[in-house]
Amino acid sequence: MILYDDIVPVQIVPQSSDQGEFYDEDYDGFYEYDDIASITTSLSTSATDYKFENGRRYHGYKEGQWPVPNDEKQQNQMDLVHQVYTLRLGGKLYLAPIDECPQKILDVGTGTGIWAMEMGDLHPSAVVIGNDLSPIQPRWVPPNVKFEIDDFNEPWVQTPSSYDFVHAREIHGAVSDWRQFCSEAFRILKPGGWIEVAESAAELRSDDGTLPKDCALNTWLNNVSEGFERIGHTVVVGPNIEGWLREAGFEEIAVKVFKLPVGLWPKNKVERDIGAFNLLNMIEYVEGASLQIYTRVLKVLQTPAAPT
Ligand SMILES: C[S@@+](CC[C@H](N)C(=O)[O-])C[C@H]1O[C@@H](n2cnc3c(N)ncnc32)[C@H](O)[C@@H]1O
């Protein structure tokens, strides 16, 4: 988390209970305390030191970690993803059988924070924390929702054994070591806690075999996937996640596979609605996912020279 490695070493949680009301061994979110307001201010400043390239805006904190923009265009795309997933799950935000009154929920790589905010409304008993490299979440949020600038590829800073639920969605291509990711989640979850990982396949298929493997769309997706792999970020999650979770210590693992249609071809209304949102999502995604990967990683396109 930015607080620990970039700014100043601050002891957020006092070591003894004689520090009065500020003592909180379950502390999990530095926005709660007025006395570190100045630190959060400098955090915000460094995290909003955005980088601009090819007309798009990228995160500033841990620059270069995530080669996808964080501007409004990309935020709209993330909200479309939320719509696709929510429709796919029949209006639900998750499938894990968590307790009715969870107390702590972590949404890693929260993006626009839309899932975390809806989760906060759904579970008023819980504090829902969403973390991300980019501070792009709204300021006016449900009172039980908080956002933090954090890098989930670093050791997690949350109190061990304190969370009921960890949620990770559409972060393939961002995680550098899934084994470490799963064990960090395991470490911060309470015994009996749950993790839900929801990732789409980096592959397009058609039911009737009419989408050739070497069509332009698949060629593009293969190139982008190769680019992400080259920067050390695994994109193939589905077939491996069960093993990674089991190695980390999780039990009772259920893997569910769903179709995510793209386009208006399905006859069934729900599928067609999902397909419509997903088509828009893909159209919005192509440019953002390709620019840095094609210019900086695969080096098949040139970044225009900066004006002199
Ligand atoms: C494709 S978006 C998914 C957003 C959200 N989970 C959703 O489903 O709507 C991936 C998000 O992960 C964030 N991200 C990428 N690398 C990260 C890292 N190392 N630590 C924290 N967040 C990261 C990005 O900034 C982006 O907001």
From TrEMBL:
Query: Protein name, please?
Result: S-adenosyl-L-methionine-dependent methyltransferase
**Per its UniProt record, what InterPro entries does this chain match?**
SAM-dependent_MTases_sf (IPR029063)
UniProt organism field: Arthrobotrys oligospora (strain ATCC 24927 / CBS 115.81 / DSM 1491) (Nematode-trapping fungus)
**Coiled-coil annotated spans:** none
CDD domains given for it?
AdoMet_MTases
One Pfam family it belongs to: Methyltransf_23
What are the protein's GO molecular function terms?
methyltransferase activity
The record's section on PANTHER family has:
ABC TRANSMEMBRANE TYPE-1 DOMAIN-CONTAINING PROTEIN-RELATED (PTHR43591:SF10), METHYLTRANSFERASE (PTHR43591)
The source's domain of life comes to Eukaryota
